[in-house]
Amino acid sequence: MRKSTTLALAFAALAGAVGTTAYAENNASARMREGMMARLDKAMSDSDGAITFDQFSDAMDARLRKLVADNGGKLTVAQLADALEKARFERMARRIIARYDTKGDGTLTSDDITGREKKIFAMLDKNNDGKIEKSELPKGGRFGHHRQSDDEGDMQ
């Protein structure tokens, strides 16, 4: 392959990676702004449409202030990263439990997992012969995007 073609492909790959990262960061920023606006709207509705600085401050970063207080008044990058990672994984765990938990008790059992697997298997076994053939699998191999509700396709 010519050097110019190799450089062009490398540049295209780098641009794609940067674009994907920028998109993810913009998406996360948008979610943060939406959360902030929701907290402000709630604070204002709780206070007849106007809030003081103290109410504003409480609505904005109560969790962050608590993290700082819980860590002796200073928060390092590592401590904040650990807290953010823990919060992210707890959200993921809650979603998984909610999808699988058949009794609604907030726990996950082997029976819950088996029940969900049976439900997905039955949905994929389009001709009800007790087997899943390749032709019955969703196009592109992606669950959740082919005749399934959102609830049934997120665990891939």
From TrEMBL:
Keywords for this protein:
Signal
Q: Which Gene3D superfamilies match?
A: EF-hand
Q: Where is the composition biased (Basic and acidic residues)?
A: 125-139
Residue stretches making up the EF-hand domain: 118-147
Gene Ontology MF terms: calcium ion binding
Do you know which InterPro entries this protein is assigned to? EF-hand-dom_pair (IPR011992), EF_Hand_1_Ca_BS (IPR018247), EF_hand_dom (IPR002048)
The protein here is known as: EF-hand domain-containing protein
Organism lineage: Bacteria, Pseudomonadati, Pseudomonadota, Alphaproteobacteria, Hyphomicrobiales
Instruction: Write the signal peptide boundaries.
Output: 1-24
Per the UniProt entry, what species is this protein from, by scientific name? Answer: Mesorhizobium erdmanii
Q: Where is this region: Disordered?
A: 125-156
User: What PROSITE patterns does the database record attribute to this sequence?
Assistant: EF_HAND_1, EF_HAND_2
